[in-house]
Write a structure and sequence with these properties.
Elements (H helix, E strand, L loop, with lengths): L3 E6 L6 E4 L5 H16 L4 E4 L10 H18 L2 H8 L6 H11 L3 H10 L5 H16 L6 H9 L1 H12 L5 H12 L2
Antiparallel strand pairs: 1-2, 1-3
Length: 184
Amino acid sequence: MEAYSGFCLYDDEFPIIYANNSSTKTRQIFTLFHELAHLLFHTSGIDTLEDHYVSRLPEHERRIEILCNRFAAQFLVPETAFEQALAGRDPSERTAEELAARFHVSREFIYRKFLDRGLISEADYTRGARRWTEQRRGGSGGNPYWNKISYLGREYIALALNRFYQNKIDEEQLGEYSKRSHGT
């Protein structure tokens, strides 16, 4: 699932957006707005880390995918704000890092804006994006205990522990509650 940032399923009553929580927070935020755009177009979609497939899509689907990317990009970093922040600066990796921190988006996002404006080459973009992806892969995925609390919720954990401490369930049952509620 690492290659997928998220997806959406369009439905008139109950549309769904899923963001892969193993992605970085900046990627999750981009994915939410990208998938929201799909829902506004009444389409389902998948957001992947690589976008090379877009050029192989049928024209109508390719146009929607590009518009969804633009919607998310414009929402997160409006053009006028980006132009003002970039004024007088070189389109370097260092600048990308600084602007990414300023706008709370990824370095790759800013680098992509450089590429789209013709300020850097495709090769420069690919090198930077690969390097940043490798840096992310080096991470541990966070503290597994905090992740479990996040998945289950504090109220659920408190309820399960209270039942355990009241001797209403044993250790094995407590472990099963944990597995069953998260699907692991």
